[in-house]
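WARN no homologs supplied; continuing
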Amino acid sequence: MELADELRCEPLALAQAASVVASSTLACRDYRDYFARTRQQMGADPDEVPAAEVTWTLSLGQAESLLPGMPVRLEPATGDVRIEGVLVECGADGRATSCTLVRVNVD
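OK structure emitted
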């Protein structure tokens, strides 16, 4: 729950964080610390940096690590956007205990 609180329960941020945790060796607690450090580096006042902006940055970093040598690029979306991810619930030890598919449609 601490990670969800840190992400302010933003659906897009939760989906992106869950994808990174599911595709890496990071525990939820480690991701939360990584998120906090990155958010602090991104702005003078960390509370002014949206959670999804930080998780997007971390997601790109994960994509680059999974695809070494391959360019990772962003293109602006037009029309309807559908975002899918996996919500990972973690136990007290920080390890994943269950996963749930998350879908967000943006019109």
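The chain has one domain: 2-106.
OK
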